[in-house]
TrEMBL record:
Protein name: EAL domain-containing protein
Protein's organism: Methylomarinum roseum
Full-protein residues shown: 633 to 918 of 918
Residues covered by the EAL domain: 24-284
Bilayer-crossing regions: none
Length: 286
């Protein structure tokens, strides 16, 4: 049973907590079951959706971010915000990541063979994977095993993931960038990167977290943070991308302040690859 120490001493968990615990156990079990199927057809519960990234000034497509989706047979769509942490706790994350890299490499090969210019496809890497000294080697080997190219692939590494094991993380990023893989620091501004680490960071892009973009037209604090991140990144010869851009006014503000690239619902929601293939490779130009 589950017990918890509350204000009045030990008490049984509320039914809410009990419900959450049950849900976690069920999701962990079912994610493991789904992955074990090793199934790559349309019936598979896991899917990849792609969201475009654009040059802030020209709106030209520069790449896609691959995001995972899980359609649970009984519980419906489960958000990665819920199942990625579960996969991290249960050790499934590495297998999940391998599956993702395989899907993305196959998609890149397919687009390249059809003559579709996709720029780069970005994959999110979890903090737990970054503690593995072999990570760079493994990823580079997987890319070549799937007949893809390193310069087709970008990895998004959470800012807070960097802080857990900065030395290993930086070494890994160096090996990857040397092989031609792009690196972006995701959710930037939500961790507490020291300027010492920032200075030597082998990253191509700094990705400003969407929480700073939502209210950017009205919050002078958010404006100041965005301004400072852009100035610092440029001084360190890194490009800046803003995520969560939903309106033309936000896009305008970011462009006016020198942000290099943008991503968000204003351009496109994340969609299945088939939905992208039917559209021209370039987004509508303003
Ligand atoms: P993230 O990497 O920061 O991805 C951005 C999230 O913002 C995505 O949510 C995306 O759908 C959403 N988004 C994009 N544009 C907009 C916008 O204009 N407005 C708003 N409100 N939201 C926007 P999603 O797909 O639910 O993913 C959430 C998080 O789950 C991701 O955050 C990432 O940390 C994690 N995740 C997703 N797929 C994977 C994966 O394959 N591997 C790992 N390790 N993590 C993943
Ligand atoms: Mg990301
Ligand atoms: Mg992000
Ligand atoms: Mg985020």
């Amino acid at each position: 049973y589950f017990a918890k120490k509350g204000k009045k001493g030990f008490a049984f968990c509320s039914s809410d907590q009990q419900h959450n615990n049950n849900r976690r156990l069920i999701l962990e079990r079912d994610l493991s079951k789904a992955l074990a199927q090793q199934c790559y057809d349309d019936t598979f519960e896991l899917k990849v959706v792609y969201q475009s990234k654009h040059c802030a000034r020209s709106h030209q497509l520069i790449g896609y971010e691959a995001l995972m989706r899980w359609q649970h047979p009984e519980l419906g769509e489960i958000s990665p915000v819920e199942f990625i942490p579960l996969a991290e706790e249960s050790g499934l994350i590495c297998e999940l990541s391998r599956w993702m890299i395989r899907q993305v490499c196959h998609q890149a090969v397919c687009w390249s063979q059809t003559g579709i210019d996709f720029g780069k496809i970005a994959i999110n890497i979890s903090a737990l994977e970054l503690i593995n000294l072999e990570l760079a080697k493994n990823i580079i080997e997987q890319i070549s095993a799937h007949h893809a190219r390193c310069d087709w692939i970008e990895l998004e590494i959470n800012e807070s993931a960097l802080l857990k094991t900065p030395d290993i993380a930086i070494k890994t990023m160096e090996q990857l960038t040397n092989a031609g893989v792009f690196i972006a620091i995701d959710d930037f501004g939500t961790g507490y990167s020291s300027l010492v680490h920032m200075k030597n960071l082998p990253a191509n892009y700094i990705k400003i977290d969407q929480s700073f973009i939502h209210n950017i037209l009205h919050s002078t604090t958010d404006q100041a943070v965005v301004h400072a991140v852009i100035a610092m990144s440029h001084a360190l010869h890194k490009k800046v991308i803003a995520e969560g851009v939903e309106t033309e006014q936000q896009l305008q503000f970011l462009t006016d302040h020198g942000c290099d690239a943008v991503q968000g619902y204003w351009f496109s929601k994340p969609v299945a690859a088939q939905e992208l293939n039917t559209r021209p490779a370039m987004a509508e130009t303003a």
